[in-house]
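Hi R.,

As promised, here are both runs. First protein below:
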Amino acid sequence: MLVFSEELPCGFLAVASGAVRVAGAAVMEQCSCVERELEKVLHRFVMYGHLSEESLDELLRYVSELRGQLVSSGLKDSDLDGQFSQAMGRCCKNIKDTVQRLASSHKDIHGSVSKVGKAIDRNFDAEVSAVVAENMWESRERQKCLSESIVEHLYRQGMLSVAEDLCQESGVVIDRSMKQPFLELNRILEALRMQDLRPALEWAIANRQRLLDLNSTLEFKLHRLYFISLLNGGIGNQVEALRYARHFQPFAAHHQRDIQILMGSLVYLRHGIENSPYRNLLETNQWTEICNIFTRDACALLGLSVESPLSVSFASGCMALPVLMNIKQVIEQRQCTGVWTHKDELPIEVDLGKNCWYHSVFACPILRQQTSETNPPMKLLCGHVISRDALNKLMSAGKLKCPYCPMEQNPSDAKRIIF
């Protein structure tokens, strides 16, 4: 994903690679420092809550007991003024002491909260523009691309009015054919969240063949969930459930076991499915699952990724930013000017995890650079793979000696590999 620059000076790769490892460990330590301060604050909040409840309960008991004593004492008017004033004086003093004690404890929490902010400032960089090219968004084409990505993300999230306002204010023109699929997708998802299966069933039936080509189970699971909703209605829906079971016929070959379980549950309909061995059919997480399956299959038919490209880019940036900041610091310390050219490359590889692997990537083990259309991977007769540029550089007098084994071969025998 992130490649090595060809302009790296000797020895810098080793330092930068070490910087990546150090950056990962440093980020974890920085997060741990902030987390420890946060845990202290949360602990103080919990303890303060307990202290407040105990203090106020004790104060209420004291005031109630004092009131009861005054009522039951039956003091004469001549004795009432002196004893009453003494009792109220003690009561007021007790209340004042309790309030001061709680206020003092609350003031200590403010100090802990401020320490969290200081820990964040101490452990994390507020200025991240150092790793971004200054002219990154000067091009109108790039600005248009960013605006379209944001608009598409808003359409995906169902925020249609916000997307329309952004289009109007930014001047981005979105074709109706691009909007329509998102409008339909959000309409169906909203119905599913309201546990209304009909729009999704109509869409699945209309796209049945295309879904079958994807080996999708969406239509069957929608029929299955509708059948379960009928079971949930009790014995009164028995006839309707039996009629609806005809919808399972096209799926009998691949979902025989599931259909048998559904039909077996009808035996317990009179006593309630929730009181039967089939009570797992009524689990509520099925609605969340069907929303996820519909989103996945609908995006596949539309040729879209399930995750929004904008959200994936943002998450990737959050993972890569600490490493890039650390590498930038190493570059400045070693005065390696010109290493980071801000072109379509980075000075070191950053691992974003398997969730961000969207296509096969091959880096030449000889030149340590990512292969491309103009420099594809080439398979040698011995089975080892290098880039075409590496093959040309290793070629001597019309012969090529594999850098990994002693086999000598003709460079024209190498074959291009397409992942």
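And here is the second one, sequence first, then its structure tokens:
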Amino acid sequence: MSTSWEESFELFEKVVASGRNAMQIRAIIKLARLSNSAPAHVLTRTVPILTRLLGSSSSPSVQGASAYCLKCIAHQGDGDRMAILIGQYGAIPIALRLLQHSEGSFQRVLVKCLRSLVTFGKHNRVILVRNGGLEIIIRMLGSYTGRMRQYLLEILSALALLREVRRVIISLEGLRFLVQAVKFGGMASRERAAHAVGCLGVAKKARRVLVDLGAMHMLIELFREGDACTKLVAGNALGVISSHIHCIRPFAQAGAIPLYVELLRGHDPIGKEIAEDVFCVLAVAEVNAVAITEHLVEILQENDDVAKAAAADILWDLSSYHHSVSFIRNSGAIPILVQLLRDRSSEVREKVSGAIAQLSYSAGDRAALAEAGAIPVLIDLLGDESEELRENAAEALISFSEDPSQRGIMSEAFRVTSFQEMQNRLVQIRSSDEYMARSLRQMSMEQLLWDPDMV
């Protein structure tokens, strides 16, 4: 433009005031094309003009051009400032009103304008919902396909970030559309939909419905295709809905376990936490526990100390599970765990020692630990500077000391002070537990129900 932005704005005002539709449309389209280079203060002054044209013009062509220009302006500026400004001037209720009586290209440009406003302006989502926008979008989703449906799904995924929307979306029969939004649309929209699905899946009743609607397979697909951030969101949502007892086996059969192994090997601590939580749920099924342990054994033999510590931590949790077979012993993990007791990383040693302490409660695992040479190493660890490591080692050795077949090689441990202290502490804990059990057995049900101190 050869003139200054101020002069250009004055010219824009004159053309709009002229009332000539053809000139208005050309000026508005020109503004839309220049919106990415126009100063923010100029764009700010055009918003009320465009909003007025959107709501008051008798020409659908002018209204369509205005909606298109507002869409372009919503993308500009720092953060969501321009999008929020458009919402504050009342463009959203106007667009919703026009949307219900529009068709063709005019309808499409209105939907795209609303999509931009709720995507870039968080407060606009509330405005749209309070003006009946959620009901309108869900109703339209039942009638449209193709690109139009994708735009509507992206609006729905943005609205579903609101807790109020998630509360009513089931009653409006919009849950199936939210699940579809996990699969269709831009990656940012799909990620929003996955987040909303995860939030809804916390409720047991909704969890089963989500699975029946195919959310599991769509989240797995998003997990595979997404970037690092999207994988975390999809992985978390997938873990939430998979915790339903009927989903555990099909969840693993759909290929989810290797995806969480990928998170475990990654560098994001949140991803590792998600993987650990999901594995602990999946391992309830014995076949899943076997598959998970095989992957964990592979990680334990790699060079990533953080991943090894995470894998050992999961084995620590899984070692308390009671299945028909000892999946940890059969996986070959025990000799590797014993070897890692001397690892250079203190975190790895602590997690491994915890897993070994838990394994030592099983007679079969205890025998495998002894065969792998665990007892001398555990005795050496009684003098380690780490308190957690010393306590885990002492806990494991106490289990060995109570095993008649292992007492012969435990004489050295009995002379270590920390081991004696741990033994005394365990005796006190067991004595306290037995006293509590006896006391509860002596109390009648009437006492439990009527004693004011128990309320």
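A quick note on the second one: Confidence is low (pLDDT under 50) at residues 451-455. Let me know what you think.

Best,
J.
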